[in-house]
Design goal:
This protein is α+β, with helices and mostly antiparallel strands. It is 34% helix and 23% strand. A hairpin with a 5-residue loop joins strand 11 and strand 12. The chain binds (3R)-3-hydroxy-3-methyl-5-(phosphonooxy)pentanoic acid.
Length: 367
């Protein structure tokens, strides 16, 4: 079994003074949800997601050895970095990066040797309520791995991607599913070969053509700041009365999805995915303290989707992340009809009529 300590490097064969890399990494949408964690961002249950294609973070990482061209203030025993968001300094993102660097330093012992400039932007509108932590942490992790690969060119691709996902996980759990592959599993599962609590892996079994180019239209119901962060939500699973049963259910639902992905049964897919979304929110509503992230329009959309599906027999369904927005999932061959339905009947429930058309993608890309 692969251990976290396998990712602590011994010695690098190369030295490098300065340079830059650029990676984009997509967001992902979980089908079986990660909700609840142990220490070190180890998930309480396995999860699986579709990687998205259009909702991405693009991050450029410039680096320079401290003793050559850095501000005098950057001493050798502190992390030194500037953070730009859409080209402008963004101080309020810095504590998150500082914490990320602290967590991953053991795996990347060169971090304090460099001054970094992290220049980042999203393809989706900011404050859309779409979490940028998954794509953002994945994009930064890819860049840091490019630097480590430059220091150790012998590194295998397998190690590169596993470690990138491990680092992303330490930034934000679900970020580890935004590195590589269209369908990504994170967390040990008895029947998924290679699955690990430490990093995401590409779903290794067969995937039926019905799921190829699957579509995800994200309806922006509420773009405001969430009242309860995911960090607090995960934490509330510790003393949750239904936690153990929920964690067991996630394993069962993954088993169901293994079969569904193989036989292409979209009706069964819908049952698992919608039940997972509602279970996630049921966990929030039954935490102590309890909370609700859905909004009235979230429920209006869910009911409209159910009615449309019932009337037309078109296999469209919804899922939710930790917020009020609705992800509408449907097969590629129903795209025209579903987009018409969304434009005619769902747009009115979106804030400023905003929605984003996305679909399954392949993961992070270097540019
Ligand atoms: O990665 P985090 O800590 O923001 O947690 C994300 C949790 C959900 O989006 C609700 C579910 C998931 O598996 O992505």
């Amino acid at each position: 079994m692969i251990e976290a300590t396998d990712f602590i490097p011994s010695k690098y064969s190369q030295t490098i003074e300065s340079g830059n890399f650029q990676w984009s990494a997509p967001s992902n949408i979980a089908l079986v949800k990660y909700w609840g964690k142990k220490d070190n961002q180890i998930p309480a249950n396995p999860s699986v997601s579709f990687t998205l294609n259009n909702c991405k973070t693009i991050t450029k990482l410039a680096f320079a050895k401290k003793n050559t061209s850095t501000p005098v203030s950057a001493s050798n025993d502190t992390f030194s970095f500037d953070l730009l968001f859409e080209g402008k300094p963004k101080e309020d993102f810095k504590p998150k990066i500082q914490k990320f660097f602290e967590r991953i330093e053991i795996y990347l012992p060169f971090l304090k040797d460099y001054h970094f400039t992290i220049d980042t932007e999203n393809t989706f509108p900011h404050s859309s309520g779409i979490a940028s932590s998954a794509s953002g942490m994945a994009a930064l992790a890819m860049n840091l791995m490019s630097l480590e690969k430059a220091l150790n060119p012998e590194m295998t691709d397998n190690y590169f991607y596993q470690k990138a996902s491990l680092l992303a996980r330490l930034g934000s759990g679900s970020a580890c599913r935004s590195v590589k592959g269209q369908v990504v599993v994170w967390g040990n599962h008895a029947n998924i070969k290679g699955s690990s609590d430490l990093f995401g892996v590409e779903f290794p079994n067969a995937i039926h053509d019905n799921f190829k180019n699957f579509q995800d239209t994200i309806l922006l119901v509420d773009k405001g700041e969430k009242q309860v962060s995911s960090t607090v939500g995960h934490d509330l699973m510790h003393d949750h009365p239904f936690a153990e049963r929920r964690f067991a259910q996630a394993h069962e639902n993954l088993d169901k999805l293994i079969t569904i992905f193989e036989n292409g049964n979209v009706e069964e897919f819908i049952k698992v995915v919608e039940s997972e979304a509602l279970t996630l929110h049921a966990m929030m509503m039954t935490s102590m303290p309890y909370f609700i992230l859905m909004k009235p329009n979230t429920l209006q959309i869910i009911n409209a989707i159910w009615k449309f599906r019932n009337d037309t027999k078109i296999p469209v369904c919804f899922t939710l992340d930790a917020g009020a927005n609705v992800h509408v999932l449907y097969p590629n061959n129903t795209k025209e009809k579903v987009l018409q339905f969304i434009a005619a009947e769902l747009v009115g429930y979106c804030q400023n009529a905003q929605y984003i058309c996305d679909e399954i993608g392949n993961g992070a890309i270097q540019s």
